[in-house]
Design brief:
It is built from 14 helices and no strands. It is an all-alpha fold and about 280 residues long. The two termini are about 35 Å apart. InterPro entries: BamD, BamD-like, TPR-like_helical_dom_sf.
Length: about 280
């Protein structure tokens, strides 16, 4: 969360002054008379609402008013980043993205630009649904997280962005695996292979790769393509020999009188050669 430079004592004093000024009137009347207060006072009231109200939207209102009433002030700049944060807390993700993007467009060189970009990325990342749903937001999260990593590598948000990027990347691979398993169970082996191949070629650094190689062994064995099955088993054994997926693949191959070894000249053979040369995984 963005850190306030206002002390707790000052906050209490400002909140008290606003409360006294509004006594005898409703909250609606208080909001309608905000132009009587300074940018600092309204901003501080927003912070108070953010910390004490169960509705982050209340804080959004005050931060928005700072931007509206004092658009060129330093407080408006602070209020804009706090709008993004408060909207994110309220799970108003589109509004959070909008505020974060406005901050980046208006203050691209500001010290809080990295935080604004991180909030923008989070607004996508925190909407990533279960594996079985459309993954459009996952792609957008990856793009926004990559921006944090590449443009703000020395910021305090870069490490968190890297971790979330890896998780989102794994999420996409898991989607491919789910579809591949669906086809495999129904005997649509060619369609299954195309999904598992995507994981092996494009998501090889994810946790899904060992299972993808096992499922390739199963699919190719089912089609009678033993060279491809053995090569998939060889890649699995070379990189994940201690994995239970390799033990399963090895048993299936041995059950057919086969062994995990690179054979033939398929796309898997190319992957195997690249791996041996240290260019894969």
């Amino acid at each position: 969360m963005a850190r306030s430079k206002i002390s707790a004592t000052m906050m209490a004093a400002v909140v008290a002054s606003m409360t006294l000024a509004g006594c005898g009137g409703s909250k609606k009347e208080e909001r309608e008379n905000l132009d009587r207060f300074t940018a600092e006072q309204i901003y501080t009231r927003g912070e108070y609402e953010l910390e004490n109200s169960r509705k982050p939207e209340d804080a959004v209102f005050y931060f928005s008013e700072v931007e509206r009433l004092y658009p060129y002030s330093e407080w408006a700049k602070r209020a804009l980043i706090m709008q993004a944060y408060s909207n994110h807390r309220a799970k108003n993700y589109e509004e959070a993205r909008g505020a974060a993007q406005r901050f980046l467009d208006t203050y691209p060189g500001d010290e809080d630009a990295a935080y604004a970009q991180y909030l923008l990325a989070l607004s996508y990342y925190d909407q990533i649904d279960e594996v079985g749903r459309d993954q459009g937001l996952t792609f957008q999260a990856l793009q926004a997280l990559r921006t944090v990593i590449e443009e703000y590598p020395d910021s305090e948000y870069a490490r968190s962005a890297i971790l979330k990027f890896d998780l989102a990347f794994d999420h996409l691979a898991a989607k491919e695996m789910e579809i591949g398993r669906y086809y495999l169970k129904r005997g649509h082996y060619a369609a299954a292979i195309s999904r598992f191949r995507v994981v092996v070629e494009e998501f090889q650094t994810t946790s899904q790769t060992p299972e993808a190689l096992l499922r390739l062994v199963e699919s190719y064995l089912a089609l009678g393509l033993n060279d491809e099955a053995q090569t998939a088993g060889a890649i699995l054994g070379h990189n994940f020999q201690s994995s239970p997926f390799y033990q399963d693949a090895y048993s299936q191959l041995r059950g057919r009188g086969l062994s995990p070894e690179a054979r033939g000249n398929s796309w898997l053979s190319n992957v195997y050669r690249q791996m041996i040369q240290g260019k894969w995984l």
